[in-house]
């Protein structure tokens, strides 16, 4: 079992602590938080071992899980990697692309593995259909959340939209050609609602909307490709595939048939792939353990985390 420690014991940090303790892949060693009040409260309530310093925690572990505010990611990651320990780091990977590149190079130099916490990659609804998403040419995603001051230290693009940026980049096998965006700051000092259009060299277009001032929650994405439409509801953990195939000469009475102007008939088929219940955060942590033990590339590599951040920063620059 890999000895794991957590840097940051806030809302998400406590979730990671709980799951690492439950996991068969890790032995939870303890945690460090720079707030004495937070650290003492977490240690007293849950019994996790509190370490006196970041260095002490790193020294006792094989893997460090960085769940601090984004502003601390770079400094924490550097300490972890220079100590020769594997790094799991929450999204966004760092504050700047330059910092992310530096982390990648440092990890390569010290021969350690790194994974970025893009949890929607492990959402069971996305997992059920990702292998069926084949050369999509139009993608539309909406990620709406009610206002929560906890995420306002970064723009909504880095807080919410980056999930969809990463998901899109994972299925579109082409370089980004152009990015354009618009956004509005309503409550925060940075945009609270944003829309981005990402154009790829192969002609694919992704239209992403993210808001943290909505009256209701929504996390949906739709992928359109040749003869198929794939819908993913990340929030409800549901998915649907609508396929179009050449209609048979004698169709069933209940078959849905479409005919275009040229007289070509297509039959519509509906498919709801099985969505297996899971804990996406636990799955991403345990997938990282597998990549460490088998010396393979993590599901969400530092390079992929860097690219998601690069596109996110282009979007922010255009707001």
From TrEMBL:
GFO/IDH/MocA-like oxidoreductase domain: residues covered: 155-217
Gene3D superfamilies per UniProt: Dihydrodipicolinate Reductase, domain 2 (3.30.360.10), NAD(P)-binding Rossmann-like Domain (3.40.50.720)
Ranges where the Gfo/Idh/MocA-like oxidoreductase N-terminal domain occurs: 3-117
InterPro entries: Gfo/Idh/MocA-like_OxRdtase_N, Gfo/Idh/MocA_Oxidoreductases, GFO_IDH_MocA-like_dom, NAD(P)-bd_dom_sf
Domain of life: Bacteria
Pfam families: GFO_IDH_MocA, GFO_IDH_MocA_C3
Gene Ontology MF terms in the entry: nucleotide binding
Annotated PANTHER family: BILIVERDIN REDUCTASE A
The protein's name: Putative dehydrogenase
Native source organism of the sequence: Leeuwenhoekiella aequorea
